[in-house]
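Sample A.
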Amino acid sequence: MTRTKPESKIIGIKPVFDSILVCNSKQLRPFVEILVQESENIDGQNLGTLIGIFEVTDTSEDSSYIVNYLISVIKKEYFSKSKRGPIESLESALHKANLALSKLAEHENISWLGKLNAIVAVTEKNNLHLSQTGTVSAFLLRSKIMTDVSEGLAPSAANPYPLKTFVSVSSGRLEKDDKLIIATASIFDIFSLEEIKKSSLRFSNKEFVQFMRTALSNEMEMAAVLIVELQNQKEIIQEPVKKSPKEINAFSRDSFSKSTTSGKNKEEKAGQEIQREIQATPADFIDEKTGHIYIKEDHQTIAPEADSVNYSTVIAKTLIAQLKNIRLPRLAMPKPNMEKIRFNSNQLVGKAGARIKIHARTAGEFAKMTTAKTISFAKKTSTKTSALTAKALSAENRNSASIFLKNIYRKLLSALQFILPDFEKIKNIVRRMNYQQRIYALLLLILIIVVPLVAIKIKNSNDAKNALLLAEQNKPLVVIVPLEQDKNVTRLDALNSVYSDNNILQTLNLNNKFFAITETSIVDLGKNQSFPLPADFGVPVQTTGMSDLNLLFLINKENRIISFSPISSAFKDNAISIPTDSNISSIGTYLTYAYLLDTKNNQIYRYPRAEGGFGAATNWLKDSVNLSETIDMDINENVFLASNNFITKLFRGKTIEFSIENTATPIHIDKIALGEQSGTIFILDQQNSRIIHLDADGKIRTQYYHPEIASANSLAVSEENKMIYFSDKNNIKTIAIN
């Protein structure tokens, strides 16, 4: 006899968070914070909720940003990779927090050491994972028993070490009606652990939260409590798995057993089978998974009917008939009478040939007659000539011949006199001239002779030049390919334009989100949303982003600095003291420090983040470096200063050896940007229309060439998105990183 398993119920628990933050002094607010954060993406829901309390008991200005900075680092790393598990993500976030605190210590900010109290925890499904440093505690109330679940997790306070701020992670299982209380140590100044336990058991959760808030607000200067109550989630009933009926063995007794199905059930089954057959009759069916409609092929052969009408054939025939009717009028022309054409052409050719023959006959007769006359005249002339030569010339004939020759000579002389000038007259005219007239006449004569010669010479010279120009034009063109001799050159066919506007000043990357800074606004390129600058601020002259606080900073020509938060979409004035005789040519940030480069005083000022702005500046530059030619600056753990053709690398104010690999085409630096992950360097070279990607040692990885890069005025890079952003005055364009 088979047994049916009872329906199983999976009961989930849902954490409800109540935070109590007391800070009766405005100056103490930056030193304590409560964290409750879920993933903003659906993919990260498996990571649960990140919670915690952070407190710094050192209230100096250098420690005022530690709490916000630490929360920013932990949140960013924990939710950065949704495919990781909660424990792995928490460990990675704590490791990143330790590294960040270590970097602060490297920059000589150590006033917080031994005075940082924090608990970082994760609640996901029914699990709790937490880590502790300092004196903040976590208590679990279960079945009227209060347990300190954070005991022993904090590292030794005797020798604090930044890289060992968060050391251990503890994990446990949460149950229904559990209550987790995370609190700073200051609450024990007014409550004992037993009093907290009794109050929690006596009051409902809402009343307990109100009781704690009232007591702490009245008695404490600064305290924080986070209460997590585990409540029932709606029940999820798991339906029993339906088993398919087993095949009946023909030789088993089941095959001969009587059916116990009632008549009513039989009728229902019959109706269902008929309905299924009706639904299965159409050849078409819809795929339940994809929603696509499919048509089954009917394999039954049907004999074609004689009288069936094929509409496509009828339409085709009709169209062809109409096309023929359209062409017939054009072709319905009378056919030419070819016989008549041949007869007429033969008549015309015959008449033309007859006329040509008549003319030819006439010409031949005329030529014969002319030739005969010429021959007879030549014969007569030769006869007369021989007769004259045979006679002796008489004296009379000789006289007449001489007279005839003299007349010819006289006519020749008169002709020559008419052609040649009269030199006697010229001499007489010259004699009558004075000295000045003779000079003018000579000059005129020279001009008459020289000017034509000069004109001829100029013409010949111009002809020669034109010939040379023509020869130059006819020479084959030599195409010069930019960066032909350079290595690792990627020639881009087209650029992707992501934004267009007027008067774009800068493109900034803030936590892999890009913003355009114009003369009048800040534009979130991802959301395509514009935020106008304050009306009294004017035009920004320097801009930068602080990733750890997720803020953008802008400075105007009066050295006024404002911040913009993409989260709250709000602008805020920031207090900062900049020397009055300075010339701030560049600004950058690292961690929560701002670095301002002063080319006039040849100094880099470092400002720590403080409440309401920035604290007092320190002169960060220690080595002698000429900053007058510095074009741009960017910062990671090192400071990089860009000049026209070289980059200076600094660490803790001192220069470090660094050089750029030489290229066939000399590099001209206009802007630089650093890869936030690998530390690689990107150089904008407007003069050669390229962006050069260097590795951390200054060796060339890739050179991106496109003519439009020549007009770029800013550069930003996201290695995570593998994109380069650059802008001119009107457009922002992107290049994919190889």
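Sample B.
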Amino acid sequence: MCYKYSLLIYELCVTYLIISIYSNKNQHLDKFVRKLADVWEELVGDRATFSLENRAFNSVSVVTMVLLAVLLPFNMWLGLTAIWVLVATLLALQVLFFYLSRYKRVYHASMLAYVIVSYITLIATFYLNSGSHGPALLLFFLTFNLLIAFSSRAKHWIWALLHLLLPVILLTKEYFDPTWITDSYRNGSDRYIDILSSYIVTLTCIYLITNYLRKNYEREKQIAEERADKIDMQNINLEQLNQKKDKLFSIIAHDLQSPLNSIITTLHLIAEYELEEEEKKMLGDELLTLTKNTSNLLTNLLTWSKLQMDGKGVRLSSENVYESVERVLSIQRMLADKKSVAIVSRVDPAIFITADHNMLELVVRNLINNAIKFTPSGGQIDIGIQLRENTCNLLVADNGIGIDPSQQDEIFSLKTQSTFGTNNEKGIGLGLVLCKELLALQQGELWFESAPGKGTTFYASFPLSQADSADKKLSA
């Protein structure tokens, strides 16, 4: 009788603790409980090393050892010799099973031995606890549910077959030999309490098991949905990358090939024909312009391709805006002079921003080059800055042809078509796309204001360096 109650308590505790292992609820544990959780994790094994089945078995073993260790002196004190000898034997076996599973990683053999001992215990319970008139059949049913819930699907047919055969054999033996089983109950009230308590414990365990299976199903369903969403997102990103790749190959095949062919043609004219000095100078100027434009295109292509591959490599530092702009203008002014476009810079030499040195100059060069391209002869480009609370807006304004309203929404994408400047300079829009991405990596932004026929102003925002931010607050 006492052993039967210990078995019921064991089944209930095992069910609850195993389910708690798989539960995904985050509990606010105090320091003491966290320590216990760490000890428990050490005993059952970490998730990275042990499978769910192995951890479940280890948890069963730990709970079993604790319960048997508590029941052993209790039964010895009651003088139940047969029971405490059985408990001591089970405790020794359970320690062995746990050691083999947890520290020797012999999980499958330990699990098999544990199941065999469990079936022997169930048979002993049937024999010692009034057979079919006791709770043994309820315990068979409960054990079957535990094994189904926490073992691999491949073994389910084994447990089903055993739980079908063993009760049938025991009931058949009892039916044909009624004297084989003795009634262990002293009176009807003992049997009533025993059966009722067994039913309540079994019902509770079945509920916990069913609840676990339902939560496990919902969790797996959620994981599957998240995985499907992730795959969909990856497909979208892959499609976008394929579009960018196609655009890039189109640029390389056409927009890069055209200026190279022009360079080859120009060099061929210079080499094959006797030309006047004025003609040579004109061809030389054209060759220089083509070479610089091609070099700028190559720089943009290589930088943009590198960003698409890793998007990293940003080295932020305190940069002087005036010095960066002047370094770019030392080259860009020659292109502007050839086109009779004036460049006026009003950048304060005392302003420092947080930016990547090379990326900053590439952004400035692309914005100025874009302004030169779409500004007619006799036009003007203004370069200045606007200070906000913690940002510096670098602006490049021209009085050129402006941007067509139909193209403004896609100006920062590779969807735009090739455009031509006021002197038929070809543009593919890659420079602005690159500027947008480079600024995003430096915690900045890029936007513009444009009116067809009146010009365009591009704004590139950068974080002010800490020193400038502090000075600005003091001056305020």
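B remarks: The longest strand covers residues 455-463. Residues 188-255 form the longest helix (68 residues).
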